[in-house]
Design goal:
Blueprint (H helix, E strand, L loop, with lengths): L3 H12 L22 H8 L10 E6 L5 H13 L3 E7 L2 H13 L5 E5 L13 E7 L8 H9 L2 E12 L7 H11 L6 H14 L14 H4 L1 H9 L9 H10 L2 E7 L13 H7 L4 H12 L4 E8 L16 E3 L4 H7 L5 E6 L2 E6 L4 H5 L8 H10 L4 H15 L5 E3 L7
Parallel strand pairs: 1-2, 1-4, 2-3, 4-5
Antiparallel strand pairs: 5-7, 6-7, 8-11, 9-10
C-alpha cells in the first residue's frame, strides 16, 4: 500500500520524529495518558479479572518517540508485573529517541522492532494480549486493512486501545492544510515546508478558524514536529463516532469503552427531561454521536476494543474482594476537596459537567488506596456506624460518576486462574 503520500509520511517522521521528546526529560516526569494506562487495560480490556501475576505482552504499533511504550513499560516495572512491551515503527529517528528514553529509565522490558504494522500478519511477532495503536490508522491509505493487521496478532481474550482524529474538534485544521498544499506542496522537503507553515501561521487573519480553536496546540507548543503533524501531514482522515464504530465492527471488534465515557453521554449535559426522553431511545453509538455533535470539542476519539465474539464481561463491582483504584488521583486528597453540594465539577476541553455524588462518596474515596477491598472499606465504615445497606446503595452512584470519568477503576486480581 505504498503511494506518494505514504513515502512523504515516512520522510516526515524521519525529519521530525513525533511527538518531540528529549530523553533527558525522563528524570523529571512520566508522560501519562490514554489509552494504554495499565490500570485502564486491566479494567476496560480484561474487566479486572486477569491476574496481575499472568505475564502481559503488549504491542505499541506506530510507537513513535515512545510515549505509550515508556508509560506502560514503566508502570509494569513499578508494579512488578511480568511481561514485555514491543515498540514497532518505521522511523529509525523515532526509535533512537524511544530507546534513549527507555535507557534513561533503565527499563529492560521493552523490545524494539522497526517495520510497518501492515506487515504484522507475516512478521512472526505476537501474539499480544494488548495492542496500542494511536495516531496511526488515520494516516493509512486503508485504515481497515491496518486494523485487521493489528487484530491478526491479537491473542485470544485480548484487546486494543485505539486513538484516531475526530473532525469537529479539529475545526480549522483542514482549511490550513488546504492552504499549505498550495503554498508548500507535499513534494517539497519537510524542512522547507515547515518554514513556510511558520510564516503562514504568523500572518493568517483572526478569521481563520484555527485561531478560534483553543483545543489544539501542537502548532503552538509541539515544535516543528507538532506543526508538521498538524498542518502539513500528507494524509489525515478524521473519523466521526459512527465512522469509527463502523471501522471497529468491520474488523470483527466491539467497543468496550469510549474514553472518557462521560464525554459520550449526552445526558451529562442535557438536563432537559424532554430531551432526555428522546436520548433514551437512541442506541449507544447514536448517543455517542449526539454527544460528539452537540459538544463540538472532540479532536480525537479514544476507544478500548475487544473481539465482538468474546463474552461481555463487567468489572466485579459487587465483589467484596475486588480492590478499587484511582487513576492519577489520591483518595484522601480527592475526598477532602469534594464540594459540599454533593456534586463533582469536571471540565473536558472547556465542557463543564457536574456529576452527582452519593452521600458516602467522601468516606469511600478516602479509603481507596489500591490495597483495601470493597469488603474492607465496608467493614471500616460499619465500624463507624455506616450500615452495609447504605454502603451498597451508595457505591453504584459513586461508580456511575467516577468510572464515567475513567478515574475510579478496579485493580487486576492478585492471583487466579
Amino acid at each position: 500500500m505504498t503511494d506518494s503520500a505514504d513515502r512523504q509520511l515516512a520522510a516526515q517522521y524521519e525529519a521530525f520524529p513525533y511527538p518531540a521528546r528529549d530523553p533527558r526529560e525522563e528524570a523529571k516526569r512520566l508522560i501519562v495518558g490514554s489509552p494504554s494506562h495499565l490500570r485502564e487495560i486491566d479494567h476496560w480490556i480484561f474487566a479486572s479479572r486477569r491476574p496481575a501475576t499472568r505475564p502481559l505482552h503488549a504491542l505499541v504499533a506506530g510507537g513513535g518517540t515512545g510515549d505509550a511504550t515508556i508509560m506502560l513499560a514503566q508502570q509494569m516495572a513499578w508494579a512488578g508485573r511480568p511481561g514485555s512491551v514491543t515498540w514497532l515503527d518505521r522511523s529509525g529517528a523515532a526509535r533512537k529517541i524511544a530507546q534513549g528514553r527507555a535507557a534513561a529509565r533503565n527499563l529492560h522490558n521493552i523490545r524494539f522492532e522497526e517495520g510497518s504494522l501492515l506487515d504484522l500478519p507475516e512478521s512472526g511477532l505476537g501474539p499480544f494480549d494488548y495492542v496500542d495503536c494511536c495516531g496511526v490508522l488515520h494516516h493509512l491509505p486503508d485504515p481497515l486493512a491496518g486494523l485487521r493487521a493489528l487484530v491478526s496478532v491479537l491473542a485470544r481474550g485480548g484487546g486494543l486501545g485505539l486513538m484516531v482524529y475526530a473532525p469537529h474538534g479539529r475545526t480549522g485544521v483542514y482549511m490550513l492544510q488546504d492552504a499549505l498544499r498550495l503554498l508548500a506542496p507535499p513534494a517539497e522537503a519537510p524542512a522547507a515546508r515547515v518554514e513556510v507553515a511558520r510564516r503562514l501561521w504568523k500572518q493568517v487573519p483572526e478569521t481563520a478558524w484555527l485561531r478560534r480553536n483553543p483545543w489544539l496546540t501542537d502548532h503552538l507548543s509541539g515544535g516543528d514536529a507538532g506543526l508538521y503533524d498538524l498542518l502539513l501531514n500528507p494524509r489525515d482522515q478524521a473519523f466521526t463516532v459512527p465512522q469509527l464504530a463502523a471501522l471497529v465492527a468491520a474488523a470483527g471488534l466491539r467497543i468496550a469503552c469510549w474514553v472518557e465515557p462521560v464525554r459520550y453521554d449526552p445526558d451529562a449535559y442535557l438536563p432537559d427531561p424532554r430531551l432526555r426522553a428522546r436520548t433514551a431511545g437512541l442506541d449507544p453509538v447514536a448517543r455517542a454521536a449526539l454527544a460528539e455533535a452537540v459538544t463540538g470539542n472532540m479532536g480525537i476519539h479514544i476507544v478500548y476494543c475487544v473481539r465482538a465474539a468474546d463474552p461481555v464481561a463487567e468489572p466485579p463491582w459487587d465483589d467484596p474482594d475486588a480492590v478499587p483504584v484511582l487513576r492519577e488521583m489520591e483518595g484522601p486528597a480527592l475526598a477532602k476537596g469534594l464540594p459540599k453540594d454533593g456534586t463533582l465539577p469536571v471540565t473536558f476541553d472547556g465542557l463543564r459537567v457536574n456529576l452527582p455524588l452519593p452521600r458516602l462518596a467522601p468516606a469511600i474515596l478516602q479509603r481507596v488506596d489500591g490495597r483495601r477491598s470493597f469488603g474492607a472499606i465496608a467493614d471500616e465504615l460499619a465500624a463507624h456506624g455506616v450500615s452495609r445497606e447504605q454502603f451498597a446503595r451508595d457505591l453504584p452512584g459513586l461508580r456511575h460518576a467516577m468510572e464515567a470519568m475513567n478515574r475510579l477503576l478496579i485493580a487486576a486480581p492478585a492471583a487466579g486462574a
